[in-house]
Amino acid sequence: MTRQEVAQKIDLAVLRPDATCNDVLQGCEQARKWNVKSLVVLPFWLELIVRELEGSGVVPSTVIAFPFGAETTEVKVATAKWAVQVGAGELDMVMAIGRFKSGDYEFVRKDIEAVVKAAKRLNSDAIVKVIIETAYLTDDEKRKAAQIVEAAGADFVKTSTGFAPSGATVEDVRLLRQSVSEKVKVKAAGGIRTWEQAKALLEAGADRIGTSSAEAILIGCRGG
Q1: Residue 153, pLDDT above cutoff 80
Q2: Hey, where are the domains in the chain?
Q3: What is the pTM of this model?
Q4: Residues 11, 92, 111, 155: which is the catalytic one?
Q5: Which of 99, 125, 149, 204 is deepest in the core (most CB within 10 A)?
């Protein structure tokens, strides 16, 4: 892959709880400079990046129920509607992890489905990615969660928030890729800081990389 092809597989994340307005503006600058696919920020920065990224080709994105997935379905749906109306093209929502670990799979499916339907009703091109937080799941649970994500109509299953004890691994990406059909893509995120890590994850089947280190990764990529 060329460097630009790699850039189009990267979601640059500015999601630290202490990230300032200046940090977010620097994220916009970096996203434009490297022409990454998307810039992902906390909801209260979304309107800022929508303005800053206008005309750049970088997709403004935000998170839903981040990082614990513990908001009610009604709150998740309201946030999704607001975000799409403001201008978000992609939403990264966190699965209801505690409900999943409790075996309440139907609740989890309906929770995701409600967000997907709300977003796509306003913008049929909106992309919804679901973070299952692999650090807290067994391999069997990872497979089950990925299958629920697909059944709910989401576009991506995503490994991690980056705030759990561990992040993306090659093994988890392979497992998720094998657990869903080709209709569902896989996003690897959490602890990805080098080109070598990103390359291994892409080769394992990741369609998208979530990282706060896009510049370092792309400098390390010598594809073009």
Answers
A1: yes
A2: 3-220
A3: 0.97
A4: 92
A5: 149
Catalytic residue flag (residue 92) = yes
Nearest to 146 by CA among 115, 112, 189, 102: 112
Q: State yes or no: is 158 an active-site residue.
A: yes
Check 9, 142, 144, 158 and give the catalytic one. 158
Thinking of the domain 3-220, which architecture would CATH place it in? Answer: Alpha-Beta Barrel (3.20)
